[in-house]
């Protein structure tokens, strides 16, 4: 149904083209030779186009934890859209949607927000992004399951897409083209947050594609996609934000803040 609504969305005065990269902001540094565009120290963006398909483009943020910290925000039963989250999160540089959730807008799997634990962890399924002692880590719930250790922040979802630098997902059932949200970590310990800006891709296609890129991804997992996929980022060097609205309101986001 959404395909036939056209490719132009206008949300709270912010417009973007579905299926294409946002128009480059002239106030931001031009991409370097590798294609990455620096938004601020420790925060870069880049657009990847798997199989030269503009409707399956990935908008990627690469975040150095030496400059940025991560926090999870969760409002059980009280979901927000991207502009509502933006207005609530003072000082935020970026955020994406997080866990899957039920019809009552309560998360599925494990979520930890500022040390408070919600939900029940997945067993032998999917992956998670954790913050422990201020440091982020992306890991497999099968190879490194949650065992009640104290965490400052965490989000969980499924499936794993990349493990130890290799594609780790093969579709065993329905796997359709839809919008996707992915969290990953590279060999330098940086976190990569990515969304499809257009009609999306299958999980198997993304799992196969990510290890072939120069992102040097070690671990990656899928977060809630489809109508929940959203991304926001803005820095002091940008004259306008990047804003990818979700079709559905979501109760939880993974947010990025500058270290003080």
Question: In summary, what is this structure?
Answer:
This protein is mainly β and 260 residues long. It is 5% helix and 38% strand.
Count of separate DSSP helical elements? 2
Q: Kindly report how far apart the N and C termini lie.
A: 44 Å
Whole-number mean pLDDT = 90
Write down the overall geometry.
Answer: globular
β-sheet strand percentage: 35-45%
Biggest β-sheet description: 8 strands, antiparallel
From the alpha-carbon coordinates, what is the Rg to the nearest angstrom?
A: 17 Å
Helix content: under 10%
Please trace the helix and strand order, writing H or E for each element.
Answer: EEEEEEHEEEEEEEEEEHEEEE
Describe this structure in words.
The protein is mostly beta strands and about 260 residues long. Helix content is about 5%, strand content about 40%. The protein has 2 helices and 20 strands. It has helices spanning about 80-90, 205-210; strands at about 10, 15, 35-40, 45-50, 60-65, 70-75, 95, 110-115, 115-120, 125-130, 135-140, 155, 160-165, 165, 180-185, 190-195, 215-225, 230-235, 240-245, 250-260. The strands form 4 sheets. Strands 3-4-5-16-15-17-13-14 form an 8-stranded antiparallel beta sheet, with helices on one face. Strands 6-20-7-18-19 form a 5-stranded antiparallel beta sheet, covered by helices on one side. Strands 9-8-12-10-11 form a 5-stranded antiparallel beta sheet, with no helix packed on it. Strand 18 and strand 19 (about 240-245) form a beta hairpin. The longest helix is centred in the first third of the chain and has 7 residues, at about 80-90. The radius of gyration is 17 Å and the shape is globular. It starts with 7 loop residues before the first strand and ends with a strand.
């Amino acid at each position: 149904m959404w395909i036939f609504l056209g490719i132009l969305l206008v949300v709270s005065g912010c417009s973007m083209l579905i299926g294409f990269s946002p128009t480059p902001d002239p106030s931001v540094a031009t991409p370097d030779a590798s294609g990455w565009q620096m938004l601020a120290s420790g925060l870069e963006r880049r657009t990847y186009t798997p199989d030269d398909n503009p409707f399956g483009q990935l908008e990627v943020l690469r975040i150095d934890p030496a400059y940025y910290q991560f926090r999870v925000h969760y409002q059980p039963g009280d979901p927000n859209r991207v502009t509502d989250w933006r207005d609530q999160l003072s000082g935020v540089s970026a955020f994406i949607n997080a866990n899957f959730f039920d019809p009552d807008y309560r998360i599925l799997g494990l979520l930890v927000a500022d040390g408070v634990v919600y939900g029940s962890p997945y067993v032998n399924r999917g992956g998670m992004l954790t913050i422990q002692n201020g440091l982020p880590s992306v890991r497999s719930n099968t190879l490194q399951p949650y065992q009640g250790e104290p965490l400052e922040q965490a989000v969980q979802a499924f499936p794993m897409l990349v493990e130890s630098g290799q594609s780790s997902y093969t579709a065993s059932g329905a796997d359709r083209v839809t919008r996707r949200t992915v969290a990953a970590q590279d060999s330098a310990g940086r976190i990569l947050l990515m969304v499809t800006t257009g009609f999306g891709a299958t999980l198997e296609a993304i799992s196969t594609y990510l290890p072939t890129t120069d992102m040097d991804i070690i671990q990656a997992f899928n977060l809630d996609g489809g109508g929940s996929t959203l991304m926001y980022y803005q820095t002091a060097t940008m004259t306008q934000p990047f804003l990818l609205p979700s079709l559905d309101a979501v109760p939880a986001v993974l947010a990025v803040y500058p270290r003080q």
